[in-house]
Amino acid sequence: MFRTWVFMFLAVLLLGVFIPSPAETAEKILIIPGSGDSQHLLRHLVDIFNRRTGLLVAIPDSVGNSGGIRQVLKGRVKLVRVARRLTENEASAGQVVYPTLEMRRVLMRTVGSIGYLPLSATRDSGLTILWIDGVAPDGVTTENGRYPYVVPLALVWKPPLSGIAARFKDYLFSAEARRVMQAFGAFPVGVD
After folding, report:
1. Quick check: bond before 160 cis, omega within 30?
2. What is the chain's pLDDT, residue by residue, as a tens digit (192 residues)?
3. How far apart are CA 60 and CA 74, in angstroms?
4. Distance of alpha carbon 135 from alpha carbon 70, whole angstroms
5. pTM value?
6. What's the distance, CA 10 to chain centroid?
7. Host domain of residue 30
8. What is the rounded end-to-end Cα distance, in angstroms, of the chain?
9. In a domain, 76, yes or no
């Protein structure tokens, strides 16, 4: 009986050693909620980043631009995904009309349909990308305005940014990440 209690006591002590505290867990895992527009692209970038660093960054399904922004403003997350410019009253404004992933699913299953998606959300979808007035969407035509339908994809945070969040943001500006973005039809432009 004494041996059983000693073993259970040691087991409980060991659990305390091996179960990370919420603060440790929070620093080891970065969750980036927000818009679905960049979800497909960022999941690919996160896979590469996680393998290279041994850290854990997760891109959950979309909660929309405003849903993500509310979370960062309340301090619940460090980074959020957005696909539009921020408004003056961001904390209280905004609504999702048609989430990107839902639009992608509708377009993929409805033959002959036409819809609006970021190029990065069309990768591996089998969808046909339309040229507008004979102009194809690419880095040059989107930057110079000849291709008019452009969606900004960005991350938003409250400074200071540190830990995994800072490392992931820095990774997004690496040559490797830029190549991945371009392969997905996203055209990196720098920091605003």
Report:
1. yes
2. 444 343 333 333 333 333 333 443 456 799 999 988 888 888 999 999 999 999 999 999 989 888 888 888 888 888 888 887 777 666 343 333 346 777 788 788 877 777 777 888 887 888 888 888 888 888 788 888 898 888 778 787 888 889 999 999 999 989 999 999 888 888 787 654
3. 18
4. 37
5. 0.60
6. 42
7. 12-95+150-183
8. 66
9. yes
